[in-house]
């Protein structure tokens, strides 16, 4: 190779400076890429929202109904692992995304085939006698928890509305931007953190439904709190349904509308995938999800899988609702 | 340290950092309420990331002339195999308690498990034949043909991921699109060549 004689010796970078610069660039690349990798990791595994960061207002229960003696899941577990697709499809990210969801003012409209339709202010519902209900909670994704809810039987509210004899079903609707307005509604502005149907992959507003006898069952409650505190945003503040013998997605969150109907109401997951999520969606280890088994579940906080119980262990109380029904057909 | 060794170190650092962070978070109870699910999901995604990286090397060399990237392809491929192995092991230990019968039943009953298992089984011969010795033994052409199986593995991986999500198809779709683009880049010239040769015969 021919050397260029025109570069004077004093312009050639001394070797130690060249090496220094190279080491500097390399250190920068190591730190820069590692920081980027770590922040991508942190995006998917966000820090949990600590109990101190949630609204810790108390709500008093008159009495406690225990349906199980199993270990309760911790407040931190219950409030940092949530399916609330309006905010995020990442269960660990919902708590932070929903943090600024203001749930006042709030109204729940009870209407449809009832003699006494009424729009309730949330504070009126909070003045109902509240009970603590310790229930198992089984998600369709094969995980479960034990949760000390606070709330009151849905029956109490439905009785006040006096269902007509033609009423056979109850339809529920979750708060969502723009679509939740009804005459007489008094609802907060939708939080910016709520995402679109497109991003979530399911239609909003989220809708759910029960047969009237399921809705009137003493185990079915409207929950207003958990662990003695008002319901945290990520768990469906300020009021949600809890139906402990059905998969968790039936227990619709942040309810704004309850409508009695004479025909089976549409339900969000059934609309999204009718062959995967039925109207009934009773917990049943014999009926598998088309793509995964429902025979076992992982209790949050445990590493081993445990067997799933028919009707989530509430068969004694609810099996009679389904006498003569083929549970495989009406899954 | 020469450049090749430095870049291999850089690749390894970023490949193993997520695993290290997950293990640290797990040990201090900060991997979320369902650490096993998170770990399974993350190791699966890492496998897909490294499969995609492995498959991008040839297009990047051809389009941008980044020929030196070939020196890191084997390492990227082996990290895909590594994460797939950790993924499978986690499932076997925590979901199935290392019960071979339970795993066999799962393969039969749950199609997405069968798809994942098939993809892992196909990764094994590729990892085994990744050495210089095996390249020589098989001969460059046969070796290259065998390793084209990476495309099939990536496609199976995307299907496996797609089958387990409920409605949040964004990430499986993203990997699907990436794999599709990479596959088209390699396959289209060949298809047009075939089409041209066929049309050339016609008249």
Structure summary:
The complex is a heterodimer of chains A (331) and B (203). Chain A is built from 9 helices and 13 strands.
Write the layout of secondary structure elements.
The complex is a heterodimer of chains A (331) and B (203).
Chain A: H1 15-44, E1 64-66, H2 75-79, H3 94-97, E2 107-112, E3 118-121, H4 122-126, E4 131-138, E5 143-153, H5 154-161, E6 169-174, H6 197-200, E7 207-211, H7 212-215, E8 221-226, E9 229-230, E10 240-242, E11 255-261, H8 268-272, E12 296-299, E13 306-307, H9 315-318
Parallel strand pairs in A: 1-4, 2-11, 5-12
Antiparallel strand pairs in A: 2-3, 4-5, 5-8, 6-7, 6-11, 8-9, 8-10, 12-13
Chain B: H1 3-27, H2 35-64, H3 73-95, H4 100-109, H5 111-128, H6 132-138, H7 140-147, H8 149-164, H9 170-201
Task: Kindly identify the CATH topology of the largest domain in chain A.
Answer: Sulfite Oxidase, Chain A, domain 2
The class by helix and strand makeup of chain B works out as mainly alpha
Number of helix segments of chain B? 9
Q: How far apart, in Å, are the first and last alpha carbons of chain B?
A: 61 Å
Share of residues in helices of chain B: over 70%
> Radius of gyration of chain A in whole Å, from Cα?
26 Å
Q: What is the CATH-assigned architecture of the largest domain in chain A?
A: Alpha-Beta Complex
The secondary-structure element order of chain B is HHHHHHHHH
Strand content of chain A: 15-25%
How many individual helices of chain A?
9
Task: Give a written overview of the molecule.
The complex is a heterodimer of chains A (331) and B (203). In chain A, 21% of the residues lie in helices and 20% in strands. Chain A has 2 domains: 31 residues; 272 residues, Oxidoreductase, molybdopterin-binding domain (Sulfite Oxidase, Chain A, domain 2, Alpha-Beta Complex), CATH 3.90.420. In chain A, strand 12 and strand 13 form a beta hairpin. The mean pLDDT of chain A is 94. In chain A, the strands form 2 sheets. In chain A, strands 1, 4, 5, 8, 9, 10, 12 and 13 form an 8-stranded mixed sheet that branches. Chain A has a 5-stranded mixed sheet with strand order 3-2-11-6-7. Chain A is of the alpha+beta class. Chain A starts with 14 loop residues before the first helix and ends in a 13-residue tail after the last helix. By secondary structure, chain B is mainly α. Chain B has one domain. In chain B, helix 3 crosses helix 5 and helix 6 crosses helix 7. Chain B is globular, with a radius of gyration of 19 Å. The chains are: A alpha+beta (331), B mainly alpha (203). At the A-B interface, helix 1 of A face helix 1 and helix 2 of B.
